[in-house]
């Protein structure tokens, strides 16, 4: 049995430096992607600043973490030169705060293993909020009904909506429907979607495949269902040529699968924007927050509910470990009761016929 590490009372700044050195080493070994490394570096450095770099890490309690999280949430994002131009400029977005919290959680898990703290203070920190902007977020994944509703509204204009009628990109339904369908059916990361190029797709009469440039340089190939392949073809034939005509000499636009109204490669911000517009048109009973990451959760959860092997789901999502996929599988309402009813020994409890 391995003895627990002896407590080493080091400052927050020193602990952050040591932890980020281990993050850098994991990145060199290919365990973490450069993008993940940059997120951890930014978040842990910000945590050290807010918590007090000269403070002893072991003295940081759960209520101190809550204070740091609150101050982080209400501080404008320094990555934006003009915070007033950023949507929700009164503070940081829920997605950004959640990412920051996850980075801090990993930092303290590492600190506990190394013996820099006697106990992980994250276990006493307040749980994250479950409601954002009036939309339900108790479950990350959308229900099947909400997912179907999102697909339906993505392919239709908002009738009688003056704001929608005034938008210059009101004729982008073919693109928006394709984006929502790809996110819901195949569950790619939003970064994989914005990086997608035309030559990543192998389009044959009986099969269309997408070679996805994944996280950490890993590549996976997925097959599009016939309806999804048809949505792709319709976008490529009826809309993309008109979008490309706005920037015909842009080499990146010629390569890119998804283009904006101005003919540029679509970015993550545009994807989130089109999802917000779609959510606003959903019926009230189905309406809830729908981020690209939530749709990735939806893909995993709905496929698991249909009986897909978790290994197949992991391969579809591009996860190296099925343990990672497990995090994406939200509990489906009523599934526990259904599982108990279907238990293989339930029949043995039936009363014998007389």
Automatic annotation (TrEMBL):
Record keywords: DNA recombination, DNA-binding
InterPro entries cross-referenced by the UniProt entry: CB, DNA_brk_join_enz, Integrase-like_cat_sf, Integrase_catalytic, Integrase_recombinase_N, Tyrosine_recombinase_XerCD
Domain of life: Bacteria
GO biological process: DNA integration; DNA recombination
Core-binding (CB) domain span: 10-112
Boundaries of every Tyr recombinase domain copy: 137-341
Entry keyword DNA-binding: yes
GO molecular function: DNA binding
SUPFAM superfamilies noted in UniProt: DNA breaking-rejoining enzymes
Keyword ATP-binding carried by entry: no
Name of the molecule in the record: Tyrosine-type recombinase/integrase
Organism: Cellulosimicrobium sp. ES-005
Lineage: Bacteria, Bacillati, Actinomycetota, Actinomycetes, Micrococcales
């Amino acid at each position: 049995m391995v003895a627990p590490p002896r407590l080493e009372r080091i400052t927050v700044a020193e602990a952050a430096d040591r932890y980020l050195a281990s993050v850098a080493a994991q990145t060199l070994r290919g365990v973490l992607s450069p993008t993940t490394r940059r997120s951890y570096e930014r978040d842990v450095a910000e945590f050290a600043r807010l918590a007090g770099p000269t403070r002893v890490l072991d003295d940081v309690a759960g209520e101190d973490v809550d204070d740091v999280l609150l101050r982080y949430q209400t501080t404008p994002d320094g990555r934006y030169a003009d915070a007033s131009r950023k949507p929700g400029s009164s503070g940081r977005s829920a997605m950004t705060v959640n990412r920051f919290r996850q980075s801090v959680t990993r930092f303290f898990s590492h600190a506990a293993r190394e013996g820099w703290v006697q106990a992980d203070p994250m276990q006493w920190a307040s749980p994250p909020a479950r409601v954002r902007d009036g939309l339900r977020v108790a479950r990350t994944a959308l229900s099947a009904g909400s997912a179907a509703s999102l697909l339906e509204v993505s392919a239709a204009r908002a009738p009688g909506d003056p704001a929608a009628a005034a938008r210059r990109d009101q004729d982008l339904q073919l693109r928006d429907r394709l984006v929502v369908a790809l996110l819901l059916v195949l569950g790619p990361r939003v970064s994989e979607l914005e990086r997608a190029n035309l030559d990543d797709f192998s389009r044959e009469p009986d099969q269309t495949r997408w070679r996805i440039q994944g996280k950490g340089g890993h590549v996976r190939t997925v097959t599009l269902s016939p309806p999804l392949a048809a949505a792709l073809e319709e976008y490529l034939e009826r809309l993309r040529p008109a979008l490309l005509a706005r920037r015909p000499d842009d080499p990146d636009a010629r390569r890119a699968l998804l283009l904006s109204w101005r003919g540029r490669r679509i970015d993550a911000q545009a994807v989130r924007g089109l999802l917000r517009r779609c959510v606003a048109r959903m019926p009230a009973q189905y309406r809830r927050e729908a981020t690209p990451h939530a749709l990735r959760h939806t893909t995993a959860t709905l496929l698991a509910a249909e009986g897909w092997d978790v290994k197949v789901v992991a391969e579809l999502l591009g996860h190296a470990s099925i343990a990672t996929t497990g995090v994406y599988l939200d509990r489906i309402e009523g599934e526990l009761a259904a599982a108990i009813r279907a238990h293989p020994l339930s029949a043995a409890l039936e009363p014998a016929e007389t």
